[in-house]
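// run 5 | inverse folding | seed 20
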C-alpha cells in the first residue's frame, strides 16, 4: 500500500499521516498496525504519548556500544563485561545484541560476549572491515582468551563469517567451538530436515 503523501490532504490530516508513515516503516509493523498505533497515541493522555517520545529520545542519546564487546549499554562497559564473576577467557561471538539476549535468557553460558554488528555479506556490501572482527582478534590476543564460541546464525553467511574468523585465529592459542546443532529434545526424526539430521550426526557425542 502506498504511503500517505505528506504534501497533500487526506482523511487523517498531514500530521497523523506522517506519524502513520513513520510507524509503518518500523520492522514488523504493517499499515493496519501503524494506523492502530497512531489512533492509540491520539486517544491516550498526552503524558503517555510524551513519555514514549522521551523514552525514544533517551535511548538514542544515551545508548551506545560497549567499549569491550560492542553490546548496547549506557555505560563505558556493559553489565556483562563489568561482571567479575563471568569467565572473561571464554567469549561467545554473536551477530547482534538481540542474539546475546537470547543466549543470556537460557542462563547457561557463564562467559562473556562479542557482538560483530552483523555478518559478512558481499552481496550487501558488508565485508570484514564493516564488522568488529579486528577488535575481536585484538581482544583474543591481548586478553588471553582461551575459548571462542561461534554463535553466528546457522546460515550460509553466518557460517562463512564464523569460518573467516576461525581462519584468522588459526595460529593463535585459542580453542574455537560452535553451538551444537541438530535434533531438538522432544522432536521426531521423520519431521527433521536433511540439514538438521546432518548437523546432528556430525555433532554426535558419547552416550
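// decoded
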Amino acid at each position: 500500500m502506498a504511503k500517505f503523501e505528506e504534501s497533500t490532504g487526506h482523511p487523517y490530516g498531514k500530521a497523523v499521516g506522517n506519524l502513520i508513515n513513520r510507524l509503518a516503516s518500523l520492522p514488523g509493523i504493517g499499515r493496519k498496525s501503524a494506523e492502530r498505533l497512531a489512533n492509540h497515541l491520539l486517544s491516550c493522555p498526552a503524558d503517555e504519548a510524551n513519555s514514549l517520545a522521551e523514552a525514544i529520545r533517551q535511548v538514542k542519546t544515551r545508548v551506545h556500544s560497549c567499549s569491550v564487546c560492542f553490546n548496547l549499554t549506557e555505560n563505558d562497559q556493559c553489565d556483562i563485561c563489568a561482571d567479575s564473576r563471568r569467565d572473561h577467557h571464554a567469549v561467545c561471538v554473536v551477530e547482534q545484541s538481540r542474539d546475546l539476549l537470547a543466549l543470556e535468557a537460557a542462563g547457561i553460558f557463564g562467559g562473556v560476549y562479542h557482538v560483530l554488528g552483523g555478518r559478512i555479506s558481499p552481496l550487501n556490501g558488508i565485508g570484514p572491515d564493516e564488522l568488529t572482527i579486528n577488535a575481536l582478534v585484538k581482544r583474543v590476543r591481548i586478553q588471553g582468551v582461551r575459548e571462542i564460541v561461534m554463535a553466528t546464525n546457522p546460515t550460509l553467511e553466518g557460517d562463512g563469517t564464523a569460518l573467516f574468523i576461525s581462519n584468522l585465529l588459526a595460529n593463535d592459542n585459542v580453542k574455537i567451538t560452535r553451538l551444537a546443532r541438530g535434533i531438538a529434545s522432544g522432536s521426531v526424526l521423520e519431521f527433521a530436515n536433511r540439514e538438521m539430521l546432518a548437523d546432528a550426526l556430525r555433532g554426535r557425542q558419547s552416550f
